[in-house]
Amino acid sequence: MLLYFIISCLSFLFLSKSFSLPPWASETKTLLSFYFSKNLFTTTLHPTTPDPASPLDHQMSVLDLPDLALDLILELLPPSGLSSMARVCSSLRERCVSDHLWEKHLITKWGKVLGPAAHRDWRCYLSSSCHLDSPNHRIGHHPLGFDKIISLIRSISSGDEKRKRYAASSLPLDSTMSFYLSLETGRFWFPAQVYNRENGHVGFMLSCYDAELSYDTHTDTFQARYAPHGRKAVAVEKGVTWERLRAAPIDISPHHLHVSDSLNELKPGDHIEIQWRRNKAFPYGWWYGVVGHLESCDGNLNHCHCHLNEMVVLEFNQYTVGSRWRRTMINKRDHREEGNEEEGFYGGIRKLSCKEEIAMWTRLWPSSILE
């Protein structure tokens, strides 16, 4: 009862700051504040010994809170706090590993880089032999406290039959917590796309390529594995930062042609991404460009009819004027992969309408014009 009284009083104090209350409420708030401050001051200076005749006082714990209050507290905890609370007792463990708590953390930290392909690969990963209790995986100290989570998972995923039965209900491997943990520890390589691959190599400026990524929690960066180009070995890049990652905007294999659905809407000045690959053995990457004017057009928007023509001019202004990579033309009425072995092959087109996407390409603009 004392606990409910304290909660009620504190709620009254907080609410009184947000609403207009009568004069007596202000006086009551002052008296309550004085009572609690006096009681705290007295307790600090003159600690009292517990009354041995009241054993129930010693049994008061966080579990005595109403379910709603306890859930609100757990929702405010960071992942490390949830992992610590999960080690207190079986009741808190059951609450702290629940999906609804971890989904918020998963979306907050990983939402922008996880697409449908990542979730599909996670399900395949669960069905493979590379699960969390692999003895070949060495895990060191995690700054966020995930060494505690790992030990928790291993403790409830091994041992006697009673513990295994509990593990089946308390923390299934397909839980959101397991997904979060596998991402945090770098165990799970997930698919995403990387801007300006291979440390901004000049041959990939203003492009975005598919890769498999593994997180390094000690550096807060990623290791990327790119699909092989023809007979070349798999390219690996370390130190990829969060800013250079995105979830694939179109759920399609990098070896498949994207069927464009906005070609007839294209007009000069539109921002686009277009698939391009060096030859047919290579995967596509997405390259940034803008729609330009036909040579027969003087660029005056009042007299421009370029959008009515079946041919569309695409400009890649990161390249110098006269470069073979500066301009290309596609047929928007019968669009398919176009190109040759010398200049590469152009595939599907995405019209960019999102200001954030356009701003991202602007931030990645090279400091000097490319040849």
Automatic annotation (TrEMBL):
The answer to whether UniProt assigns keyword DNA-binding to this entry is no
Domain F-box: residue ranges? 59-105
Coiled coil: which residue ranges?
A: none
Signal peptide residues are 1-20
Q: Which Pfam families match?
A: F-box-like (PF12937)
Keywords, ordered alphabetically: Signal
Question: What is this protein's record name?
Answer: F-box protein At2g32560 isoform X2
